Amino acid sequence: MIYAIGDVHGEADCLESLLSKLPVQATDVVVFLGDLINRTGTDPFRCVDMVLQFDRCRKICLHGNHEDTFREYLENGDASVLSGMAAETTLESYERRGYSVVGGDPASIPMEHARFYFSAEAWTLPFYITDNYIFTHAGWCLDRPIDRQNLYQMHWGQVTGAENAVWTQTVIRGHSPLSRVTTVQNKHYIGIDTGCGMGGALSAIALPSGQVFTEFPASYRKRWRSRLASA
Predict the structure, then answer these.
(1) Where are the domains of the chain?
(2) For 37, which of 9, 55, 90, 180 could close a Cys bridge (C-beta 3.0–4.6 Å)?
(3) Has domain 2-230 been given CATH number 3.60.21.10?
(4) Of 83, 119, 123, residue with least CA distance to 103
């Protein structure tokens, strides 16, 4: 079985609860779709730590746009890349652990965290493909071969090209918050970001069974999507 987990955005208690309820076997694979950090969740540091420490089965972690911009900040020191990313919660969570994050200095955070952000581990991938599924944080070009895929689209974009698809797999994506795990048949994808860290819930899907697991963080608010739209 493959278990895919949507955007977490710092909700460490919720991620811990969800992981404890997944009936994972040693032969399974857990795929984290990225965006572990930023937004309103108060403990992005612990979210990263939980992924680092997860060892119940094989794991894959994709980087979302939030990890990508945080890596860029660590690498180049340009604070402008964090604008609009609600990165304050991430910086504060590192500060509470005694790490004052310095832009342009990856050594200002724990080495194992830096290796995570810089995709230095074998389980940190830009995407993950099986016979039946394509796992990406955000977007995928269904009408393009692998060598013409765009990393920016994987981090920030949408699923495109369904009309002339060369891929037969179903895309499993996060990034775009939905009220529930949703299959979009005409675009060949399943969206599993249900707004965690933005007022919504944290969801995972088991494949191929399609069973959905959902946990509600303390920050969950009814009608969170309408509040988001009016913000």
Answers:
(1) 2-230
(2) 90
(3) yes
(4) 83
**Predicted structure pTM score:** 0.95
> 96: which 2 tokens?
């509470």
| pLDDT mean by block of 10 residues, the chain; 231 residues | 98 98 98 97 97 98 97 96 96 97 97 98 98 98 97 97 96 96 94 96 98 95 67 37
User: In terms of DSSP bridges, do strands 2-5 and 29-32 run parallel, antiparallel, or are they unpaired?
Assistant: parallel
CB-CB contact of 224 with 198 (8 Å): yes
Using an 8 Å Cβ cutoff, are 5 and 202 in contact? Answer: yes
Say if residue 208 is preceded by a cis peptide, omega within 30 of 0: yes
